[in-house]
Structure formats: C-alpha cells, structure tokens
Write a structure and sequence with these properties.
43% of the residues lie in helices and 20% in strands. The longest helix is centred in the middle third of the chain and has 17 residues. The protein has a three-stranded antiparallel β-sheet, with no helix packed on it. A three-stranded mixed β-sheet has the order 5-4-6. It is elongated, with a radius of gyration of 22 Å. The chain is an alpha+beta fold. Keywords: ATP-binding, DNA-binding, Metal-binding, Nucleotide-binding, Repressor, Transcription, Transcription regulation, Zinc, Zinc-finger. Belongs to the NrdR family. InterPro entries: ATP-cone_dom, NrdR-like_N, RNR_NrdR-like. Its cofactor is Zn(2+).
Length: 157
C-alpha cells in the first residue's frame, strides 16, 4: 500500500477492525518512511451482470428502490427495506461468487420479501418470474396459502 503523503511503496498495519456490518475491514496504517498514519478500507467486490451485458457493482440502494415500488401503499418501513437489502447481499455473498446475473439478484429478493409482505411479494414475483396469465397468479397465491398458518373460521371476517 503506497503512502498517500510521501508515496513510499510500503506501509505497516497498526490496527484492523471490521466495518460496515462486517462486510469491510478498516485498517490503520503507518508509513515507515515519513511516519504518518492513514486509514484504508478493504471490501470484497461483488458485481452484477445486466441483461445488456454491462457489469456494475452490487448496490443495496438499487435493491431498496426496486422493492420499494412493489411495497408502494403497503405497511413496510425504510428500515424493513434496508434489512431486506442486507439479507439479500449476505445471501449472494455467501454463494462465494464475484459476479452474479441481475435476474438471480431478483430471484434472491423473493424469499425475504415473501416473509416481509405477501402482496409486495406477489407484485415483485409477477415481474421476476414472468407471470403471463391469471393461472400464474393463482398458483402463486395457492403456494402462499399452503405455507400460511391455519386460520380458524372464527377469525375470518
């Protein structure tokens, strides 16, 4: 690591700490040439390949903005969306790949979104699973009902 002050080609690590939810390492370094200290942040790169073939860095903000559209008018807070984006990123990073297809990112969102809000899940799934008919919606709704806890007839309106 080059010293940003004197451009010496080496530096010594004085302290290391995790940062940003454990996804980065913050290192305090000291230059043996000029003695000045500086901080570096190391992160692993995760890239998303778009349908067009373009590659761009993974962004939690893009996850949040995409899911926010599906959650429009639903009782979902910004904190809920931030947590969902974090879960999606952790799931993708746990696969150990440096590059992932954008469609796979969309499919990875479905699990946490289903747990967060079923209506938003259906809205989002209709796009990413390419629903083309009422039967697609009906089968998705039937799958949601199967996984739901039983409601007694007394609790129905």
């Amino acid at each position: 690591m080059h010293c940003p002050f004197c451009r010496h080609a080496d530096s010594r690590v004085v302290d290391s700490r995790t940062a940003e939810d454990g996804s980065a390492i913050r290192r305090r370094r000291q230059c043996p040439n000029c003695g000045r200290r500086f901080t570096t942040v190391e992160t692993t790169s995760l890239n998303v390949m778009k349908r067009s073939g373009a590659v761009e860095p993974f962004s939690r903000d893009k996850i949040i903005s995409g899911v926010r559209k599906a959650c429009q008018g639903r009782p979902v807070s910004d904190d809920d969306l931030a947590l969902l984006a974090q879960q999606v990123e952790e799931t993708i990073r746990s696969n150990g790949v440096a590059e992932i297809d954008a469609h796979e990112v969309g499919l990875t969102i479905l699990g946490p979104l289903r747990a967060l809000d079923e209506v938003a899940y259906l809205r989002f799934a209709s796009v990413y699973q390419a629903f083309s008919s009422l039967e697609d919606f009906e089968s998705a709704i039937a799958a949601l009902r199967v996984d739901r806890p039983e409601q007694s007839e007394d609790s129905l309106p």
